Amino acid sequence: MIDKFFKNILKLFGFIIIFLGLLIFLSLFSSSLPSIKKFGLKFLFLSDWDPVNEVFGGLPFILGTLITSLLAFIISLPFILSVTIILGVYFTEGFIAEILRHIIDLIAAIPSVIIGFWGLFVFVPIVREVELLLGVTPYGVGIITASILLAFMILPYSASIGKDAMRLVPQDLKEAAFSLGATKWEVIKKIMIPYARSGIIAGMFLSLGRALGETMVVTMVIGNKNSIPQSIFEPGNTIASVIANEFAEAITHLHVSSLIYLGLILFLITMLFNIIAKFMLKKFKI
């Protein structure tokens, strides 16, 4: 009887969450209708953003969002795998494991505005010096700067899920491999990582969804240039950062509607990545 009651409560909360998500989508869609009617799907491919002449295109911001998020994913990948193996295999319990877990939790708890300030005043000058050595324009701020900071921010989330996935590898499989003469690294490489691969990838997708919508850090270090960047060292903009920068100053109805249209696009992109991640988690029961 009690189990049935709690199941009904969980179903109710699930329906409420779905209903709220639907309400958010409908409110974004209705508020962006003026922009949708004027630009349609061409909005996705237009690169001009001119509030004075009321010409709006979302391509620079969509590309900026996808590029920074994917770069952050690529940069964080070796660190995610390293931390996942260390916490999921070598230090599963004990004093060192507790210290490492607390460090990961501490990184996840740092407010994004603090990371943004650190990036602006400490990391940007370092990037500028590296750009001088590489012979590119030393902006300091730009796509690569935002991507590196995003990689640092998503690391704890991916590593935490990957660690749990590694620990779910059946002990019988590991013992069978050891009994056949496999070394510990061979067991990790050929047994544990393939078995936990789906959970690790799902964690990366969930972290990627967070990177897509990150606002404060990106706004502070990406340069906020409303055009398609020609290289990863140039300033750019993302959907979240342009909304944060311009929404309070938007005067015309079409300008506001176009910003909300960008928010709708970001909502759909993030939802797509989260659906893929949830599907993988459910399919492989991780």
Entry keywords:
single chain; 286 residues; mainly alpha; MetI-like fold; two-stranded antiparallel sheet; 1% strand; globular
Percent helix among the residues?
over 70%
Rough shape? globular
What structural class do helix, strand and pairing data support?
mainly alpha
CATH superfamily: MetI-like
Number of contiguous helices: 11
The average pLDDT score comes to 82
The secondary-structure element order is: HHEEHHHHHHHHH
Q: Rounded to an integer, what's the Rg over CA atoms?
A: 22 Å
Compute the separation of the termini in Å: 28 Å
How are the strands of the largest sheet arranged? 1-2
The largest pleated sheet is described as:
2 strands, antiparallel
Walk me through what this model shows.
With about 290 residues, this protein is mainly alpha-helical. The protein has a single domain (about 30-285), classed as MetI-like (MetI-like fold, Orthogonal Bundle). The chain is built from 11 helices and 2 strands. It has helices at about 1-30, 35-40, 60-90, 95-110, 110-135, 145-165, 170-180, 185-215, 215-220, 240-245, 255-285; strands spanning about 50, 55. It has a two-stranded antiparallel sheet. A hairpin with a 4-residue loop joins strand 1 (about 50) and strand 2 (about 55). Helix 3 runs parallel beside helix 6 (about 145-165), helix 7 (about 170-180) packs antiparallel against helix 8 (about 185-215) and helix 10 packs antiparallel against helix 11 (about 255-285). The longest helix has about 30 residues, at about 60-90. The chain is globular. The two termini are about 30 Å apart. The model has no long low-confidence stretch (mean pLDDT about 80).
